[in-house]
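Dissemination and training. As part of the outreach component of the grant, students in the summer workshop were shown how a complex can be specified as a set of sequence lines and then modelled as a single object. The example used during the hands-on session is reproduced here so that future cohorts can follow it. Participants entered these lines:
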Amino acid sequence: MARARTSIGRTIAAHAILITWTVIALFPVFVTVVNSFKSRRAIFADPLALPWPQHFDLVGYTTVLKQGDFFGYFQNSMIVTVASLFFVLLFGAMAAFALSEYRFKGNLLMGLYLALGIMIPIRLGTVAILQIMVAGGLVNTLTALILVYTAQGLPLAVFILSEFMKTVSDDLKNAGRIDGLSEYAIFFTLVLPLVRPAMATVAVFTMIPIWNDLWFPLILAPAEEVKTITLGSQVFIGQFVTNWNAVLAALSLAILPVLVLYLIFSRQLIRGITAGAVK
Amino acid sequence: MAARKPVRWHIAVFLAPAVLVYTAIMIIPLIGTLNLSLFNKGPDGVQFVGLANFATLFGDPRWSASFWNALGNNAWFFLIHMLVQNPIGIALAAILSTPKLRMAAFYRTAIFIPTILSFVIVGFVWKLILSPIWGIAPGLLDLVGLKSLFAPWLGREEYALTTLALISVWQFVGIPMMLIYAALLSIPDEVLEAAEMDGITGASQFWKIKLPLILPSIGIISILTFVGNFNAFDLIYVAQGALAGPDFSTDILGTFLYRTFFGFQLQLGDPYMGSAIAGAMFGIILLGVCIYLFGIQTRLRRYQF
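and obtained this result:
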């Protein structure tokens, strides 16, 4: 059977196409990281060469670390991302459990209401969000960003998690009820551990747009001490346009954390996507 | 009725946090923005003007030229994604799903990497690569003997928008690839084996058997692309600034909204017209989603295995 579907020529062609696109996908990242370790002259003279010892130079990184508060930005991004992720997962899972477990009036309507946010981007409400944050004194705080990202992440989280929670066996939950567990205990001790793979998928999908967002940090929290790393590197690069060493180093510093997180979670992400589709 | 059945408070407790945050930060601002678009500054303070802001936006030459320009650019941006990103994504997924392909996991991981990078990184990296000063792009073209084709693509009015759209395609091709890949994996082996029994293999198997089966996924990807594109802002802002140069040739609705609401250089910010633009974007996205839900999705034939 396998022989009918594959042949040597087609396999080679498949690899050729995939390698070509992989090179296209990775080339810009490669060029940036490699050149960030070179001296200014080497960047221009031979942009594609690896940073051999004779042009190896960390001047870009020293400029970046001296000029911009990148550790502060990084810390802000971490706080915002982790806190939003926590609330999205907790609130999303709770709502998803209510929608998938109980039959009550307005269940379907509530599900549709929460799913509306998947199609309508939260950015369109920016004008009024800014007014609310100004009224609440939350401009230039990380709380404002956490609130917005929690609201932004919830619709998709509820949607995906309630699909998964429908697959948790009823017998298990009823056994828990007979043993006298409260509904809260059933949710936290029985159901949550069972949907952990789905939570990981939701986490990755929620995390990437939060970490990379430029719009809300720019509008709600542009002050120096609450800048996220995405906004921080954007502003920094804007100021240092002609200092190529510093720009390339700043870009590399911004790429690395996401890349590491992605490589850690990529297996989980891919499994989550394919598992969701198989159902 | 309450006497017959006790109130199940836990349902409310489970739902409350999500519904409260979602309603307060997402739904109320959305309604607030739509409401604000019906007001404007008049001779005696802010007053209700009905749909006058929209009439200005669509008809007054000072506004409508920018609006239709942004809308047209946005449509072109979307068209390029549909014509380039989605076919490439589908093709890569089809190749990746070849049975017994070695290193498939590596390719999948690598091709998805641009998608996780922020717009700031993507915009600046490509700006540097395409920069005539640095010379990576002309140098690479020289290698294949096509140096004469090089132009400062991001700086020319006629190329800038297309170039940016292609950069965005480069970044996001991983999403259709992943979703289609998942859909292709979910086609049962029996169907494919039956096709092979009938002598349908290779490319004709893809066109005749797999493609019809993954059409619903292609529909979902199209609508996701649509919503994403008509909401885009970051890449243009990072690469060309809020003015979306050269000469507004890369201005799309997101940058137009940002400029109008927050102002730039000599123009003052205008929350009322800004809300009107957000309202128009809301209408466009809603229209697109409705066309998809009622016009396309209901006609797609689904197969159950």
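Chain A has one domain: 64-278. Students were then asked to discuss how this feature might be tested experimentally.
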